[in-house]
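W.,

You were right to be curious about this one. When I first looked at the sequence I had no strong expectations either way, so I just let the prediction run and decided to look at it fresh. Below is the sequence, 730 residues in total, followed by the output.
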Amino acid sequence: MVLKILKNAESTWRETVRLATPLDSNKPVIIGTKPRQGDFEAYTDNKRIFINVDEKKFRKNFEDIIIPAYEDACHLLYSMPSVPTSEVFPNLVLDNFLFVHFHEQLHPWLCPNSKQDERKISKALYDGVKKKEPGLSKTDILLKVNNSKNLIWDVVLNISFLSKTAGYNNDDLEEKLGFVFAKNKRQIGKSPVTCYPKGILPIIYIISANNRTTDIPISLIGGMYSTLSYNNSDIREKALDFFLDDLKSKKISNSDSIDIIKEMYRGFISELDLKELQKKSIDKDDYKKRVAKIHDLTSPDYEINQKYFISTLTKIFDTYSMRYDSLKGFMKVLSPYMSLSGKQGSPDPNSMGSPGGSGSGEKGEGDSDPSGGGGSGDDSDDEKSQDELDGDSMANTLDDLLGELDPKEADDLLEEAANSGGGYGMGGAGKNLLKKIDTLAADEYYKRNADVLEVRNPSQENVSFSLGTTKRWKLVRTDTLTPADVSRLNHGPIVNFQRSTGLPVLIEAGGGFFKLNQYVLEETPQKSYNSQLTGIEIPDNWVFFQDSSGSMGSKSYVGTGCKFDILNRVKYGLQKGLYKVCKAMKKDLKFGVVDFSDSTHYSGLDSLIKVYESRSHPVKDVSLNPQCGNTYFNSGVFLKIKKDLAPGKSIYTFITDGQIDGDTSSLYRRIDEFSNEGNHSFVFIDVGSASTFGRSIESMGKSKQNVLYFHVSNIKSIKDKLGSILVRYK
């Protein structure tokens, strides 16, 4: 029955969308029956809407929690004399699913409505947390922004939905819904349904609050939605009580909860400029007086206040000069309750593995992680793991903030996040969230701060290339004929040839004489020219071997000036230089990193362009996560490398700051074997003291031009040496 109602809701939604927003009328809705957690979830990738519902659990929650709370006043929500008991469930479920469809469909239209909007909202949340909790580290602020952003998107969207379905601010969605209801002769009992009911928005939040599967911010926002959603005081009180009871179970008293909800309302205008408010005819003092009445749920003026707040907040959110400061003020209130250890609220684009999408606030019973999750219908086998989704989400949040923060604060955030050690002293979900971000932050830090290897511009030459051959008639002979000679000629072929080719064959020469031209068909080569960038030669493969033992630095190395920090500045400087050459020359090379300490780590070779441009990549996971142990090397890695090499020239750069332990004779043999092939070159660099193994490679290099050894006092000095080997000028 639930799925049937869901499909009916989709049909009603689609009819309405054809009238209200025709561009979305063919947007696919993918329905499944296996939500990742709980009884229900919904999300969008901005191209499709995904809804997963466990019928049995969903129905039980509705019948046990929602129906008892709503049935006595259901007729008031629908503005009709009565609603038969048997009609309460199907109609509330239908309108709940209608809300879900509109919520997901409207995300890209309303919030976030562009990448710029998403970035600015993240910055507003960052500023709100920072202002409220100035003692928090930048990494903790990043976590709170990441964990709350979807919840905040939904606040903007849901309040706008209340406005649209009530017909406020000259919106016509209410009218379009009423038209579709009338066209389809929708009835409850014998009464026609003429408008969308008031009180649907909080339903799913109520289920989570009742089952104690939500978190403090969700219950606070659910309480706020309750004050905005009902046209009857009895059901308004019942709805709010669900959230107050849940908050009480979390050690927040009823009076404190009401005070926080009032403060949330005040937060929306706390950071707004008085002149901006006046432009929109919003009286700050009047707004605050109305907030003071929020707790008086039975006031006869309550619905007037509801309309005022819905209209006013929608007006603020729709005005970009006010939207972000409003959310900053709102976030100041919620910040102390936002978790560091896991996402709160709804699924986001990356919780679904879809970088351009958004999730709704719909969660159901049993959601131990309110962020939910989901799949494309029932098929979730090819979805990303939760760790991957969490990493993508954090990466998006970090990218958003880096695009908005000033350069100094952005670098400070990167340095701190990179040195978080994959957990920043936290356990649980917070540790998993930061597991990815430290590598992402380190990568971005070195991209921004490494001094690029300066490479000479390639020269431009005109190079010819063949277009094939073309056939042309070539004049090979001309005879002079008398009229008698001409009379003996077969004139038919001559006339036909002249007509088909346009070439003169028989022509008057004057003085009574004629000329006869003879032609042969000849093939002529065709050539054209284009410009090519030349003068620079780069290898086809570059393998970077790095020592990450304890003497190179600690796991919190980014920006510290330790050897591993400087090594990465050099490595990224070389990568940046080679990347520019590859892009200019339209040629790529394969790149990989071997990290050795207690173990030898290698994740394969890949396109240098792809590795450099990727936000996360297995090569970077090896490259940027030092082991900080001893200095062992497993030479078996060469067999893996050999399988991954592209045809052509390979350069191996090997950097260490001390003695290599283990089977160095095997390592020596591998280098000797590989260097016997003319297209392999080895560069071994000892930093600080010269190692015994390094000296043996130096001896090898005396008889092999493709084996080089350098002993340097510091890592900085090796960039130009390696650069001259990796980039050759012709």
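Here's what jumped out at me. The CA atoms of residues 490 and 632 lie 94 Å apart. And, maybe more interesting for your project: The chain has 27 helices and 18 strands.

Coffee later to discuss?

I.
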